[in-house]
Every structure is written in C-alpha cells, then in structure tokens.
Amino acid sequence: MKYCSGDSGSGRAEFIAETLTLAEAQSIDSDSPSQDITIRPFLLSSGVIWRLKIILTLGRAVFMFPWSWGEIQGENGVKNFEVTRWSPTWERVWSFGSLITLFCSSTLTVFQFSLLINIVKDSPASYRLPFKLYTSACWQLHSAMLTGIFLYFKEPMRTYANTLFAFNRRFVAEHVLTISQWKKRGGLFMNITVPVLCAQIVLSVMRYCSSYKAPLYLTRYWAAETGDDAPSWAILLGAVQDILTSGHLVAGTLFLGWLTVAHATSLEFWIEEAHSFVTSAVYLVKKLINQLDFLHSCNYDSDMTRDELRVREKSMEVYRMAQLVSNLFNNTVGKMAVPMCAFLNLSAAIGLGYLTVRSMNHFFLEEFPSSVFFPFGAVLTLSSAYAQFQMSAVLYDMSASFLDSWAKTEDLAERRFLSSCQFIKTTAAGFTSVTRNSLVRYFQTVSNYIIDAVITFP
C-alpha cells in the first residue's frame, strides 16, 4: 500500500540516493547479459543518445552548457553514461559568455519591440514588416529567457538527466530481457524537431547576411549615419551575435525538449510493462514448473521483461519509483520546460503562421533565402509543442491504465485504495497538468490566433 503514497519530499531524496547507489547493478544473469542490454543499458536508443550529444556539443560551442558527455566502459561491456560538469574556472568563463549573449539578446529585444510599436502606431497598409519585427523580437526574447533560465537552473536539470540514466540502468539490469521489440516513441521530436531547429541557426544567419540593412538590425542605422554601407567587421560581428543568440535558443529548447521526451518515454515503458496482465498466482505456478519446455512458448504479457516485473509487489515498487522520478522532473525540469514550451511555441507560431500565409506569393522569391525561415519555423513550433505535450499526455493516460489494471480485483478495499492513488503527470509550474484535453485546447488556441491574425491584418 505504501508504494502509491503522494508524499514526495523525503522520498525523492531517498530515491535519488538509492538509485545512484544501485546504478551499477547488473542483470540477474549478469554473467552473460544480452546484446540489447549491453548496447542499450539505459533503455534509450543510440540515436536518442546521439542527439543528446549533438545538443550538448552545440551548447558548449555557444557558451551555454559547461558540460561534457561522460561515457565509461563498465563491467561486462556495459557503458556508464553521465553528463559531467566542468571545473569551476571554466564554468565561470562559459557563464561570462552567457551573460554577454543575454545582454545582446535583451538589448535587441527592447530595440525591436520599441521599433515595432512605433511602426504599428502609423497604421501601415501592410503588416508583413510589423510581423517580421514581431517574429525577430520574439526570437531575441526567447533566447534571452532561455539564457537566463540556464544561468540559474542548469545544475538541477543536469542532475535530473543523470538521475534518469541511473533509474533506467537499474531497471534495465533487473528486468529487461530484450528491447529489440520495443516500438520507440518520441520520434516526432527526435527526427523532425531536432534537425529542423538546428537548421534554424543557419537560416537565421542567412537571413541576417541577406538583409542586414533591414530596419530590425542595428547595422542599418550604422550605414544611415555614415552614408555608406556598414563595414565588413560590423557585419561579421552581427553574424557572430546572431549565431550565439540562435544557438542559445536552439540548444536551450532542444535540451528541455529532449529531457521531456526521454522522461515520458522511459516512464511509459516501465509502467506499460508493469501492467497487471499476469496474476501473482499464475506467476508462482510458472516459477514452480518453469523447467517444462512447453511453458517457455507461453506469452502471458511481454517478452521484453521478466515476469517478476508483473508481480504486484514489484509492479507497485516500479510505480512508486516512477512517481518519485516524475515528482523530481516536475520540480526541476518541468517547471521550466512545460511553460517555456507553451509560451515559446504559441508566441512564435502566431507571427510565423501569418508570415507563411502572406509570403506564398511573389514575396517568397523576392526575399529568398530569408523567406524559407517562416515555413520552417511554423513547422518547427507546431511539431515541437505537439511532440512534447503528446508524450506527456500519453504518460498520464498510461498511469491511469496501470492503476485500472491492478484495481480489477475482488478486494474492495484494495480497489478503493488503488483508485485513490495519484496519476503520474507532467505539470506546468505546479498549476496544471498536461493531458489530452489540455493538448487539444492548446492547439485550438494556437490555430485560432493564427487565423485571426491572417484575417485581421492585411
């Protein structure tokens, strides 16, 4: 009964200590672990881990993450993964670089929003330029917000990533037989959002280099004061600033999104595998006569994990662990990732959606290649928000299904107890949970704002 308790204060600390201590645990048959476990000891595929390495590399290059990817060969060929901190000296250097980028992003945000207000006051005949300014100002604002968040909250996020690795490693070693049959989820974020968002850095620099005389860039006013074109070093400096600003936005968004998707994918797998399809009595009978060959061909539930995982006591332990991991996520990554994902994608989708529709004419060719930025950005915002919120909503439904499967018992008191257990959910700063209903409402709001902008502004 204690496994579904809602108290997460001391339990969270005990879980972290226990999980990190047991991270080196090997499988029951540790002398000959399967090839799947050796290759994927942390449940996540090599492609998912490779994308995390790319994100960390990008973060280091733009002075955002003073971290390295640690990979140590352990016993029986099983690797240990960890996101490691740099020395305090190098952390200060990278923090100084982040502060410079934060100052540049904040300055451009104020400048572009003030310029936007002045243009809108004149009631222009076409609102393409105001929406361009709005989109660019949001780009700078989002970069500044993410830079500030990671300056103050990057260490709890790094700690959670390592805790998730340790959590998966422990249960993979104890319960997994093979992972080759697992249908991986989260592909929309990993396969579309990650490469498209990385490409946005190149598109943003191309847009600047092709239109640095536009009103939204300070180099225009440099040229206006001197009467000549801006010097090459000023254009180069602006391109470097654009790379740093875009890099902070992309690296911060991808790291938060990667943690959200990896968290939901991992917990969903363990909760799904621990569903009550095989009763404890059936398991005990199987354990007594497991020498019989015909029994090995019987598949009561899943071939990927051991039957011990579906014993009531063990499954409730897994659910309790998943609750603690979820609470830790909500108190570290979730309180920043979910609100930022909702705000960033909503505010960006309005401008990008409007510009995409209004640029489907001669403007697309006249402003190429900067015009490619708009449809790419629109696809990115929609796919990124949907991928993260959809995975969180599925996790919520999976936890409800888990409790429902174990509540199908003749014991009325036990059914009432299981029905009262808290669902595993992803919360937005502790105020609301991500569910299918909230996912639908969010995209209805986004689409309504885009449609209203296209209809209202010429």
Key attributes of the depicted protein:
mainly alpha; 4 strands; two-stranded antiparallel sheet; transmembrane helix; about 70% helix; Odorant receptor; 15 helices; globular; transmembrane; about 450 residues; membrane
Tell me about this structure.
This protein is mainly alpha-helical. It has one domain. Helix content is 69%, strand content 4%. The protein contains 15 helices and 4 strands. Strands 1-2 form a two-stranded antiparallel ribbon. A two-stranded antiparallel ribbon has the order 3-4. Strand 1 and strand 2 form a beta hairpin. Keywords: Membrane, Transmembrane, Transmembrane helix.
Q: Gap between N and C termini, in Å? A: 62 Å
Number of helices: 15
Number of DSSP-assigned strands: 4
In terms of DSSP E residues, the strand content is under 5%
Strand order of the largest sheet: 1-2
CA-based shape: globular
Mean pLDDT over the full residue set: 78
Short recap of the structure:
The protein has 458 residues and is mostly helical. The chain is built from 15 helices and 4 strands.
